């Protein structure tokens, strides 16, 4: 068996040929028509009214916050279990990231914990649909934030292709944010996208990402902005990747169902409930005992794995948070990502699951 990487990007001649055609036609490389085409493709797929692409997913979150008027001293509630980009994007603009615990059933922000964390300084909540999953009742977050006049931003970096009750994740809040880094279901190497149905927020986003001006080539600055732009080179790759998105979504769902079936009933392994009719997981995951031992064993069998993110309040960068978040700590301790490329074969999934079962049933 070849070494099965935990994750790997997926390109073929389509991307290479499209790039060659663009360069041969005298493309200017910087963002132009292809970038606008890529934005339109994302908007069409998600059903959003507006889309703007930026240089990466972290920048996307920061731009979203700035577009909502979040500034120095404001508080933004984030889950303690998430990729560090979520709180970093808050702190990048001088606001304060306020951590809350998660619901261990889906690894998303706990609604009741979020409500308890709100203060008069709270200006936004970043709801992370971690690993493509979403809270049981997104509407609770939407209604609560509207009632409190708090912006709801969806960090859907890992959720392109995920729907909740027929609506694409990222469209429930005021702004939805996606990432196109290398491990995502489609990738442009780096890159991020913001979607919204609110024209005013979209106008703010466009200005912030391009020096504060209304259009390129203009030297009149209507607000403070920065250079967070995309490139046509990335957009060309993204457009080719978008053509493959639907088939990848379906394959991810198939792989997820196969993992779910094969990993059932293994002592020491807990599966996380997933609605595979709506959710193509970004990374296939389990909660397990003796994680390090399992990882070592699987590596010996040519199977790559990756530990979950840490509970962020335990990290040196955020140790000023002295509270305890038991569910996030539990997920960080036991969580393991299994091989998750959309190119995985059924035979490879069987091989992986067979060896996980072997480890926990002393058949090794």
Task: Give an overview in words.
- The model has no long low-confidence stretch (mean pLDDT 96).
- Helices cover 38% and strands 15% of the residues.
- With 364 residues, the protein is of the alpha/beta class.
- The chain is globular.
- A 7-stranded mixed beta sheet has the order 1-11-10-7-6-2-3, with helices on both faces.
Concise account of the structure shown:
The model has no long low-confidence stretch (mean pLDDT 96). The chain has a seven-stranded mixed sheet, sandwiched between helices.
List the helices and strands and how they pair.
Blueprint: H1 13-24, H2 33-46, E1 50-54, H3 57-67, E2 75-79, H4 85-92, E3 96-100, E4 102-103, E5 108-109, H5 111-117, E6 122-128, H6 138-148, E7 151-155, E8 163-164, E9 167-168, E10 175-179, E11 192-196, H7 199-209, H8 232-262, E12 269-270, E13 285-288, H9 291-300, E14 306-307, H10 326-334, E15 335-337, H11 346-360
Parallel strand pairs: 2-3, 2-6, 6-7, 7-10
Antiparallel strand pairs: 1-11, 4-5, 8-9, 10-11, 12-13, 13-15, 14-15
